[in-house]
Predict the 3D structure of the following.
Amino acid sequence: MASNSVLYRCSLLSYQYTSAATIIVGRRTVAISGNGFRACKPIRLARNCCSYSCSYPNPNPNDSAFVVANDEKYGNKQNISLTPRLYDYILSNVREPEILRQLREETASMRGSQMQVSPDQAQLLAMLVQILGAKRCIELGVYTGYSSLAVALVLPDSACLVACERDAKSLEVAKKYYELAGVSHKVDVKHGMAADILKSLILNGESCSYDFAFVDAEKRMNQEYFELLLQLVRVDGVIVIDNVLWHGKVADPLVNDAKTVSIRSFNKNIMEDPRVSISMVSTYRRWHDNLPEEMTFSQADSDFSKAVTD
Ligand SMILES: C[S@@+](CC[C@H](N)C(=O)[O-])C[C@H]1O[C@@H](n2cnc3c(N)ncnc32)[C@H](O)[C@@H]1O
């Protein structure tokens, strides 16, 4: 929505607590999303030697949602965890187009498949694009094309999505699915480094001409992507940034690796940035069926973070 999101990866409705994305609105509208706190976070954190845990450990992480916050600090609202069963329920309420299902299944056997946004996240991205009436969109970090195809499918025929990806091999899969879905004419595939492509769009006189952007590439470049996108996206447009919670690490003061520090710093900058309105939204990325049995929800997510450390 990762990660990480208008409310892009969100079922704002169903997940309000569980994962995170931020929507920023102001002169421009920017949405930041990301993967958030997971149902089994205590297990992952234990394995990763992190410091915090939920206040109400779940006796059966696979089945029962548990209360993670329920006091005055949270307005006496009862926030519950997301469990695999609950997440399956959410997924069973996603209208995933058949072509996206096929792409998801083909990608599942590929290296890095866990990087793909989940069906509910893609549905949210598509809905944001529709609400916005977007005609010109940008995606940074295409991989095999799941999120970009979800967006392209809802764009009108005259619209355009600039899809930026540095990895030629995964782009081949994306292009194949744009063809199969009959949306190739709407997707302008750019093979290269995302920041360079954005700079070339600006030099090409395309400032303020985009309605929507989804950022899902190199996390440490988010600040630079954001500044470039502020030039390219029109006032009242939307920018969605994935993985702003970085699998919960941003909230842990004991986690200070370069990527976490960078994302934490970016989130702080956005929070203080008067140019935009914001909303951070929690979402979840699906684990993969081929993970070892002992791996949990959040361990799968932890692996995702490694996979995108590129
Ligand atoms: C998280 S994946 C994108 C997933 C995709 N949005 C989807 O839903 O399937 C991140 C992608 O960004 C690409 N990437 C990373 N750094 C990049 C850069 N500097 N420029 C362009 N692409 C980059 C990676 O090759 C990878 O395919």
